[in-house]
Amino acid sequence: MVTDLDYQKETLPMLDLSLLKFKERDMLEGIFKFWRLQDAATFDISKHWESRLRHHLGTRYDSRSGVFDWDYHMKLHEMAEIVSSREYQGWRESGVAFQLRDDAPYQYSNRTLASGLITMKGGERVARRGYWGDIVNSPYLALGLESDNKDLFHKTNSKHTKGSVDVSVWNAQWLLGRLSGVDTSRATWERNCLLSGRLMMMMVVIASRHRKADSSKKVAALHSCH
Question: Would you tell me which of 61, 122, 143, 146 could form a disulfide with 57, CB atoms 3.0–4.6 Å apart?
Answer without folding.
Answer: 61
